[in-house]
Structures are given as structure tokens and as C-alpha cells.
């Protein structure tokens, strides 16, 4: 597929997805109120929901980034973005103007774009897929009951085996020399009309590569397996806390990319990055966490470091929440000490939460959350583990305590995977993620 055809395809895909979303229902949004009957008063009791700094008068609720329960952050002037070489916690906004690198420059060389499809019939790891029966988008999730006495365990009975077809789009940088190994960027949710997938991302890469601010990377954007959240193929792939998705990309997607596009991809983990939004943002981190031998650079917008893993895993009942914070439910036996090591803990960690209790890994991580980000979008899940802002603040604290190389951005006047914020920050975020990698000679 040439560049003109690729632009047309992305445009048509965006239109189709927008129409599909309208037909099926709205995307997940934050609630305006605390789930009925939730524990908001006793931090020592199970499933406590922390309301510190939460303004319930706004729609959706907003968080004060300076409240005492969050790690300290540097507040930048409105319109500014974090420095390209700085680390730590930053507050930006409320004005989000698109960075100049997001606009096409006629004088800049353009990368080539190729697309192909994968199906579950040809898969080994994700065959069959998962399909959730429902009348509108996420209706089943919003109305499903939870296990008796356990609001963390959503019961989905309409999920069953099914098939999937997805698009893989490959950006090959200008000047790529056939036969040479190229640095790699893998992006999830490549089928969504977002700045982090498709034409907008490729334009940013064109500009940054031309300015020698990042290496000439090959970008592989991968569509999800379909639907969203618990019981879906997308949720199965992105929200599971394991190395399965990274193994699938390595064994099934990248070999197809090399064969169909005629390129070679590096196996050097320092020359490989992952990227995603929401659940695919959490998956981007999970890929590096379980396979640091493959990936060591990560970029994520509104990553879902909350309890979304499904089916419910009794060995890690908090899902991705347990990267940074303890399980919020009743006390349970120490599964590691009792001789049973859950799959999530087989990487030399000593137990949950994973980041605080594991040796520091060679991961460089940039991530963002908005003050209007998701807050308990599924009312039944009043489990103390579905506040996206709190989850990401806790993640920043855990990374700082372990002295990781990270940059965390709290964006004012920004919703879940906020488009204007993404267009404002994506160029410098990519540059920060690739810092320290040898640059091409000007």
C-alpha cells in the first residue's frame, strides 16, 4: 500500500469506527458519583474507595493533583510540556495546543506505509478468540453482577469462544536500507482513530526522524481483537498480567511483518519500544515488565493500571492494580510463601504489589493521565481499584521508590486518552522515551 492509499484507508477506517461507536453506544465514561454502597469511610476495611481531592460537582469528577495522597509534582506553565531530558512527576494544562510536529511538512521525507490482516484462524496463541454477546457497546459490563461479597469479581456469562480479524499497519522510515536491522516501535489499538495510531503517529515520526530527534524506527500498529473490557478479546489481550501478549507479538505478528513487508527488525531490547492507550497502554508496560529481554522503552496514555483482568485470577485478583498497590479486598494467604507461585510472580518478584517487591528492571517509562480520567465506569465494580487517576499516581510513586527512569504527566482539563493532550505531548514523549539511544549522524 502506498502513502496516498494508506491515508485514504486510515480516513475511511476512522469514519467507519466513529459510525460503529454511534451505532453500538458510547465509549466508557467516568461516573458522576461514587458507586452506591461503596466503602468510602474506613481505609482499613476491604474495598475502600479513596475520595481525597475528588470533586464530585464536575462531570466527570475531577482530581486535585496537589492533594497530599499523590506524589509531589512540578507544575509547568500553561502550554508547556515536560523537558525532553527531565524525569519525575509533572502537571500540565489546561490549554492543549497541538505540537508543530503533528502537522505534515511538504519538505520532509515520508515513510512508507503497508497494511495486512491477521485472523484467529491463523493464530496459535489466540485461537479461538473471545466474543461477548451484548445489545450495545459494554452494556454487559455495565450491568453484570459481581460475585457475592466480592465487588472486584465481575461475572460475565455471555462471553464465549469466537473469531477475530485485525489490521496490522507498518510504517517504514524514509531511507530504510533493505536487509538492515531497524529499531522497533510496537503500538496497540492500531485500529482506532487516535493520534497514537495511524496517520498522525506516522506524521510525527516523519518529523522527528527528519530532525534526528529519534532513531529511524519501524512502527508496527496492531489492531485489538475486538470489543472492550471484561469478556472481550481486547480485554483478554491487554488486561491480562502476563507475558502472553508479548509472546504473541513476537511469535506471530513480527515474523509476518518481516515477511510481508520485506524488512528486518532488531532483537536488541534497548532498540525496541512499546506504546498504547488505556488498556493497550497497560499492555505496553506489561510487555516490557515480563519481557525486558525484548522491550525496555514504554509510552502510554491513560494506562489501565486498575482491576480489569478477566477471567478473575485468584492468584492476582487485583489484576494490573497490583503492579503498584496491594489487593484492596480481604486479607488472603501469601500465595508465594505457601509454595504456590502465580504466573505473574514467576519473574523473580517476591509478591504483590509487583513493582515495589521486584528487583528494578531496565524499563524507561513515559505515561500520562487526565484530571477528568475514568472513575468507576462500571458501577458494580465498587472495589477500590477502578480509579484511573489514583492508579497512575500510585504507579508513579512506586516507580520513584524503586528509582526507575520515568516521566509521569498529570494533565489538567483532560479526559481519558485525551486527544488534544496527546497531540500536545506526543512528539516530546517519543523523544523522551528514545533518549539515550544512538542517534543518526546529521
TrEMBL record:
Any one GO MF annotation of this record: hydrolase activity
InterPro entries: AB_hydrolase_fold (IPR029058), Esterase-like (IPR000801), Mycobacterial_A85_antigen (IPR050583)
The keyword Metal-binding is assigned to this record: no
Start and end residues of each stretch annotated as Disordered: 58-80
Pfam family, one: Esterase
Key word Signal present: yes
Signal peptide start and end residues: 1-23
Tree of life domain: Bacteria
Keyword field: Hydrolase, Signal
Annotated protein name in UniProt: Alpha/beta hydrolase-fold protein
Species this chain originates from: Paracraurococcus lichenis
Amino acid at each position: 500500500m502506498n502513502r496516498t492509499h494508506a491515508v485514504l484507508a486510515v480516513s475511511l477506517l476512522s469514519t467507519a469506527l466513529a459510525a460503529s461507536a454511534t451505532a453500538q453506544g458510547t465509549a466508557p465514561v467516568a461516573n458522576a458519583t461514587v458507586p452506591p454502597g461503596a466503602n468510602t469511610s474506613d481505609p482499613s476495611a476491604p474495598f475502600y474507595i479513596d475520595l481525597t481531592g475528588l470533586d464530585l460537582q464536575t462531570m466527570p469528577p475531577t482530581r486535585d493533583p496537589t492533594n497530599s495522597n499523590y506524589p509531589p509534582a512540578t507544575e509547568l506553565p500553561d502550554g508547556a510540556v515536560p523537558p525532553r531530558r527531565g524525569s519525575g512527576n509533572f502537571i500540565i494544562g489546561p490549554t492543549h495546543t497541538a505540537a508543530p510536529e503533528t502537522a505534515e511538512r511538504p519538505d520532509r521525507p515520508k515513510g512508507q506505509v503497508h497494511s495486512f490482516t491477521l485472523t484467529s484462524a491463523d493464530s496459535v496463541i489466540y485461537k479461538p478468540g473471545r466474543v461477548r454477546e451484548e445489545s450495545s457497546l459494554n452494556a454487559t459490563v455495565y450491568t453484570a453482577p459481581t460475585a457475592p461479597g466480592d465487588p472486584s469479581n465481575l461475572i460475565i456469562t455471555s462471553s464465549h469462544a469466537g473469531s477475530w480479524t485485525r489490521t496490522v499497519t507498518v510504517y517504514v522510515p524514509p531511507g530504510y536500507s533493505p536487509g538492515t536491522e531497524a529499531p522497533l516501535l510496537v503500538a496497540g489499538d492500531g485500529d482506532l482513530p487516535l493520534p497514537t495510531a495511524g496517520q498522525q503517529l506516522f506524521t510525527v515520526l516523519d518529523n522527528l526522524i527528519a530532525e534526528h530527534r529519534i532513531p529511524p524506527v519501524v512502527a508496527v500498529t496492531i489492531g485489538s481483537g475486538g470489543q472492550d473490557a471484561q469478556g472481550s478479546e481486547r480485554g483478554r489481550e491487554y488486561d491480562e498480567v502476563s507475558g502472553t501478549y508479548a509472546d504473541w507479538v513476537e511469535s506471530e505478528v513480527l515474523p509476518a511483518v518481516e515477511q510481508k513487508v520485506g524488512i528486518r527488525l532488531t532483537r536488541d531490547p534497548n532498540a525496541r519500544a512499546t506504546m498504547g492507550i488505556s488498556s493497550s497502554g497497560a499492555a505496553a508496560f506489561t510487555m516490557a515488565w515480563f519481557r525486558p529481554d525484548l522491550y525496555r522503552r514504554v509510552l502510554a496514555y491513560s494506562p489501565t493500571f486498575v482491576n480489569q483482568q478477566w477471567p478473575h485470577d485468584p492468584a492476582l485478583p487485583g489484576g494490573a492494580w497490583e503492579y503498584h498497590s496491594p489487593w484492596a479486598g480481604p486479607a488472603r494467604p501469601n500465595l508465594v510463601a505457601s509454595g504456590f507461585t502465580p504466573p505473574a510472580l514467576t519473574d523473580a518478584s517476591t509478591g504483590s504489589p509487583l513493582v515495589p517487591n521486584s528487583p528494578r528492571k531496565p524499563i524507561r517509562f513515559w505515561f500520562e493521565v487526565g484530571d477528568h480520567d475514568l472513575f468507576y465506569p462500571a458501577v458494580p465494580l465498587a472495589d477500590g481499584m477502578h480509579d484511573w487517576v489514583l492508579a497512575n499516581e500510585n504507579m508513579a510513586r512506586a516507580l520513584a521508590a524503586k528509582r526507575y527512569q520515568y516521566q509521569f504527566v498529570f494533565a489538567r482539563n483532560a479526559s481519558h486518552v485525551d486527544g488534544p493532550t496527546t497531540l500536545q505531548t506526543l512528539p516530546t514523549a517519543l523523544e523522551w522515551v528514545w533518549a539515550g539511544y544512538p542517534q543518526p549522524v546529521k
